[in-house]
User: Fold alpha-1,2-Mannosidase from Eucalyptus grandis.
Amino acid sequence: MLFGLAYLFLTHTSSGPEVSGGLVKNAMRNEKEKINSDGVSGLKRFWRKPPRLPPRLSPDEKGGKNSFGHEAENPSSRLKWVSRQQKVRDSFIHAWSGYKKYAMGYDELMPLSHHGVDGLGGLGATVVDALDTAIIMGADEIVSEAGSWIETQLLDRIKHKGQVNLFETTIRVLGGLLSAYHLSGGDGGMKLTRNGPKPAVYLDIARDLADRLLSAFTASPTSVPYSDVILRDSSAHPAPGGLSSTSEVSTLQLEFNYLSMVSGDPKYSLEAMKVLEHLKTLPKVEGLVPIYISPHSGQFSGENIRLGSRGDSYYEYLLKVWLHQGGSQNTNMTYLYDMYSEAMKGVHNRLVRKSVPNGLVFVGELPYGSNGAFSPKMDHLVCFLPGTLALGATKGKTKEKAMKDNLLTFEDLENLKLAEDLMHTCFQMYSVTSTGLAPEIAYFHTEEYSEEGLDGGNKTSKYLSDIIIKHADRHNLLRPETVESLLFLYRITEDPKYREWGWQIFEAFENYTKVDTGGYSSLDDVTHIPPQRRDKMETFFLGETLKYLYLLFSDSDVIPLDKFIFNTEAHPLPIKGAVRSS
Assistant:
């Protein structure tokens, strides 16, 4: 079995071109020029030595075009992806134009009624979420507009606003400010733009915001922070009911750690890391944890285990915080990788199943704990997992390089196989519907569970009978998780099908969610054409979805995976010691 699985990896075909060039405007100017926009030095290896040698390439597999069967890049295929990248950039500009016209300074755009709405505390979340996307795309006018608003308006908002959610504000606003700080040249960073304010402006505002958010940690009687903060008086309190989401309390550490790194003040990292150090001590089910935790007792609450909402980014940040802090070079952080590794074994053993009749691999839930019934329910949010598994397997290197350098353990190979299987399932959640867009939640037909008359509507799909979409779950919020994982799987496996899948998803967004007057809308029902629209454009469509699509179609040296870690809102932060000034 061991060698059979290894052989399956080695014989996986991955032919296709790789796009050269970084930012689209430069690539269009000279398609022959490869732009190494990261300006980074080599990163020392920081993963563990494998306990056994992985399989070797056979003589046949070493021959041909190259050892993994990639086709040589050619100008026409490169230009195809440059052109598609430009279309994503155009869509970002269209989304921003609607927001600027009707909702500038509000958290989110209501694209159908042409209004703005504050659903995230009133800190102009779309402005901050979109800024580093604009920097990466070279959308200089938007960088100037967003940067100017942040410089003149945001600090006053922070000082006078009321309640915000610790998690949402950290990942969107704090993460966005810190990423913009680095990408605009702060702390010897990349300086991808000369537009907008000086980098120190972003850092100063980030520190002011973080100082206020720290009250969520210091006001709690345990190491588990409260969920809500009153910004104007730097006070904090628990959510109604008293509980915090496990994912929320454990998805703060990348941002607070990086702020300590660039500010020189360790207080941010110390408070945030207390949470993970505490979680390490709590009982788990093969590394899997319930989705609620009490800041009063410091203990998990309930037994509901899932990798969807309220659970997802706990697992993501175990790996990413470890990588961000230097991986195996930092022995103080080894416990994080151990927790991640144990949890992924738990996923394999307790949550992975196959659908009938066609065997889609999916990750279900244990709503009543390890001794309760299994639920074949999978949130779209779970589609972050293929990308995380692939990143954990190769630590951001390509599969080809990792195998040639004997860096992959058998556990890594298993996780990479699961990543590819789940990636296929996540894409089928899109292609099985009439619109080509995924529902918020899917159920899977199994031997124990089935429902009739709840298919996705695409009668040509092979998997029509495998995926069940209940009426209450048919909405689409422009979520990024699938295209996020497509980026990771493409860069790591170099299989061009992941780019093609991303292009199909992008075209579906264009066909069914684009609003002529500016912006993009969520949908009520992805199984029906024409779909009913919802009057909401989430900030993550600009901050995550379009950024990941743009990078999927770009060259792999634009924000490389072995030198940057994306926070859970797609804000790239440089790995400790990996990035130097360009």
